[in-house]
Write a structure and sequence with these properties.
The protein is of the alpha+beta class. It has helices spanning 7-18, 28-34, 50-56, 107-112, 134-140, 149-155, 158-169, 176-185, 194-205, 210-216, 218-224, 245-254, 260-268, 273-276, 290-304, 309-321, 330-340, 342-357, 366-382, 396-401, 407-421, 429-446; strands at residues 23-25, 43-46, 61-66, 71-76, 79-85, 87-89, 101-103, 121-124, 127-130, 142-143, 173-174, 278-279, 285-286. The strands form five sheets. It has a five-stranded mixed β-sheet with strand order 1-2-5-4-3. Strand 12 and strand 13 (285-286) form a beta hairpin. The termini are far apart.
Length: 450
């Protein structure tokens, strides 16, 4: 069992040790190293208090990012490293952050305040410092709170979502006492800032265990997105479905590439279904206009959770358009490229594949059609077919030279683009200008004589 410390981190440790201070890697970097992964960030814990830390690291650039809680960010070879004083956290009256902290010279005290056993390890003198069975839980693939789970979640409600995130990303299970405390304390998530929620939710959704976690912790997910709650138990009686709306959503998320935009879109894609459900005289459920109804709901959810404007727009549009089947027809797909652009077309393909995989065997033949559509799209793009104004062989300058002005230039470019996409005119400069002249002549001949 080894931990390889990069030189830029070791240089900081050496400076602290040279000043007489105990210091060591701690937390996620130790966890990831023991899992055989390269840590994204290195956090160090030290017996020195912030001003003493700054003095010991005077050769480095130091940023006072969290002096109140004992944290200084050190830039070593352009890499940021958080160095935090060993501390004991005070009470958490707001269930989000400690009211006060007490600095200590005891590493064990510092490890005791951490959230989960797999995050409560340090590495010192070439060996792990593991007081709470973190190595055992890594081997057993278990998420377990340090000490009393109830107390840990009462301290910081976000730890509830962090537990789910780690279980998803690492594909671990959550041990029973921790799981029970999660369900009992899920209401604490209502006190957490939206940005913190969206960060954890994003990582959760992209993990290999996302589907399992969504299925097992529906109540927790619906605490942060209550608009999803009506999906749980909402039936879909009919030949095309084999799950209720929530489990269909879970299965579709599982079947989507592990990227934020498609997975977030699939989480919300049927959010409009429960309010649109009708049942015919034969007992078949229908969900007319559910995509149209769901899009503004999805947009509301995403904006509330402070996702980026781009994610909010694209995911809501994905919800709105997910029923617009990408048929394997070159003419139709050229129009789709014209309408949406290639990135959104491929997003729709991924959404529709996932949607189909989460339905009954009666519709699985659609997957072959979607594969054909993808091949056609790639072929069209390889041939550099024209689907946008900037690809036209004429420009606004060309049209201005013909005497067009103002909005007429844009209208003419749209007319030409439609003609090229529909195959009525080749994308060649002379042909396009002739087509435009013929269109103007045809329009003039149809205008009534005064």
């Amino acid at each position: 069992m080894t931990l390889t410390v990069p030189n830029y981190v070791q240089n900081v440790l050496d400076a602290l040790h040279a000043a007489g201070w105990q210091a060591c890697p701690v937390g996620g970097c130790v966890r990831d190293s023991l899992l055989g992964k390269e840590p994204h960030d290195w956090d160090l814990a030290t017996a020195s208090e912030p001003l003493q830390t700054k003095q010991a690291l005077s050769a480095f650039s130091c940023l006072e990012t969290g002096m109140k809680h004992g944290t200084i960010t050190v830039l070593s070879d352009q890499h940021p490293i958080e160095v935090t004083t060993f501390r004991i956290d005070g009470s958490y009256s707001d269930n989000r952050r400690p009211d006060n902290v007490v600095f200590t010279r005891n590493l064990q005290d510092d490890l005791r305040r951490r959230d989960f056993t797999i995050n409560a390890m340090a590495w010192e003198n070439g060996a792990p410092v593991d007081l709470f069975g973190g190595i055992h839980d890594l081997d057993a693939k278990i998420i377990r709170c340090v000490g009393n789970p109830e107390a840990r979640f009462q301290e910081d409600g976000l730890r509830i979502l962090r537990a789910l995130r780690f279980a998803s990303v690492l594909n671990f299970t959550i041990e029973p006492e921790t799981e029970s405390a999660i369900h009992q304390n899920k209401g604490l998530l209502r006190n957490i800032a939206a940005e913190r929620i969206s960060t954890e939710l994003s990582k959760l959704l992209c993990g290999p265990g996302a589907g399992r976690i969504l299925a097992e912790f529906c109540d927790v997910i619906c605490t942060i997105i209550p608009e999803l709650a009506p999906e749980n138990g909402c039936p879909q009686h009919g030949p095309f479905h084999c799950y209720d709306v929530w489990m269909h959503t879970v299965k579709s998320v599982e079947s989507t590439p592990p990227e934020l935009l498609p997975r977030l879109t699939m989480l919300l894609h049927d959010i409009g279904k429960p309010s649109c459900r009708t049942t015919d005289i034969e007992g078949i459920d229908h969900f007319y206009r559910h995509a149209e109804v769901g899009a503004p709901i999805a947009s509301l959810v995403l904006h509330r959770l402070r996702f980026s404007g781009e994610i909010c727009h694209l995911a809501a549009e994905g919800v709105r358009r997910h029923m617009l089947f990408m048929e394997p027809d070159e003419h139709i797909l050229r129009r789709r490229l014209r309408q949406f652009g290639p990135d959104f077309c491929f997003l729709l393909l991924n959404l529709q594949r996932a949607d189909t995989k989460a339905q009954s065997s009666a519709v699985q033949n659609r997957l072959k059609l979607l594969d054909q559509s993808e091949r056609i799209l790639h072929s069209l793009l390889k041939k550099q077919v024209c689907f946008s104004r900037k690809q036209l062989a004429v420009t606004g300058t060309d049209l201005t030279a013909l005497g067009l002005r103002g909005p007429s230039v844009g209208h003419a470019l749209e007319l030409l683009l439609d003609a090229v996409v529909d195959g009525r005119c080749p994308n060649e400069r002379t042909e396009l200008l002739d087509f435009l002249q013929q269109s103007k002549a045809s329009k003039s001949s149809k205008e009534p004589t005064p």
